[in-house]
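Q: Sequence in, structure out?
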Amino acid sequence: MSSEIRVLDAETIGQIAAGEVIERAASVVKELVENAVDADARRIVVSVERGGVQLVEVGDDGAGISRAQLPLALRRHATSKLTLATDLSAIATLGFRGEGLAAVAAVAQVEIVSSRRGESSAWRVRGHAETVSEPEPAAGAPGTRVRVAQLFDNVPVRREYLRSPAAEFARISSWLSSFALGYPGITFSLRHDGRDVWTMPAVEDARERLAMVFGREAAGALIPIDGAAATTISGGVRGFVSTPGFDRPDRRNQLLFVNGRLLRSPLMSAAWTAAYATFAMLGRHPYGVIFLELPPDHVDPNVHPTKSDVRLRFGSQVFDAVRRTIAATLQAHAAQRLQASTSATNAFALPVHAGDGASPVSLFDEAFAGTDLAQPQMRVLEQVARTYILAADGDTLLLVDQHAAHERIAYERIVDAARSGAPSEPLLVPLVVELDTEQSAALTELLETLREGGLEIEPFGEGVFRIIATPAGYGARQFDLAGFLDDLAAEGKQRDVRERVWASLACHCVCVAGERLERGEMTMLLERLQHCRNPMHCPHGRPTMVRLDSQDVARMFKRA
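A: Exactly. Output:
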């Protein structure tokens, strides 16, 4: 290795700089789509082939680029969005450095066809590395179409870090659908390998796009935040956050826009967590989207090559404003729920007759804290909040979490059936489920493990699967396949893959909190629980029951 210092050639410099900006096909999509937004496009169409490695094409109906300026679009640090260095202190556009297209051209073949409204012809330029062709006439509608082919063809080592085409496409789809939340007035379309994947028509309200990003059921649990608490900052806070009790195991679905930029921000994630401190379970995370509008000179996006983070001039004030805004929204929502709950309780409260129709069920065996088996039998009394089963024997109260208990029973049955090769239960009418690209890829890898656990699924078209059999005894339940995949993807991988898959499978096969159970169903549930190998915990470690003896009750009433 030579110790001499020498100037690198332009092509090498371009590839090094491009590596900071263009990491994968999703990076190309981000640069091109943001340029289209800056050009005031009302329709943006993204087409990719083989996950974007073979081709990324982004077309828009924006302002277009004139013939004279078209070659400059591929030159490094040539931009229409800055004039002086002082402009960096108040950036109002998504792009500003003038290096995005040049960075793409450094690692791919780029073709731009553009036409300004009123011009008689469109013009085309091609570029790669430091070479840019002269403009030539071309056919094209008003706006701009950028084609990026053979990504990293001249840097093959970079391709080794890419995942499968399906996984790379999933990144593109996820980013683009999330980005579209910030621009409801623009129509976005996505195509992959010649097929239309999805289209988001222009709407007036971002709420109409929430289901596309979070799923229909999850979107239904989102509540609009009250920005009135954000009076400590210049600007505004709006958006949607999940209702307490509707949460996710990670932060991936906590979306943040700052002045139209889709960003990641540890500071804002911390504000979100602080606001939910008394509303969410430990280890669970709310989801939703927050839009921050701040004065341009309060935001510095020139801190990361990919513009994925920003520096806030008054970060602590913004943190406090976001925290207070979310907390105020949650408190107001809780008050509304409390009022509705108490009104319903007063209207429908009925006297409880503990002995009516209660079937005897012996819950205690040697695994249950040394309780004397000769004690009077426990009897199911009532279901509490449609979530807990209350039982008693005259001296002891037992409160059982119906979901956790049923989950333990189902898990052990699934494990035993898998080990013994017991058949699953065919469905009379197969359940057809449509999944997004990322979920489809994840499910395909799990089909064999799921079949071993009793859930038989077969492909039924692109992104569509058919559930044809379920674990024996659970065929009557509506299996939430998408929710199962989301939960499994977010779960830690400390355990064996079969244990993780089967535990999540059990979780999505059984009764849930809020589900009404009949007296006989509750009795049967407790009877089966006592025969489990571990009746005290669900397969995820949560307790299945809480026991209160006479001394515990006495202490509550200050008698002991």
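The first helix runs from residue 10 to 21.
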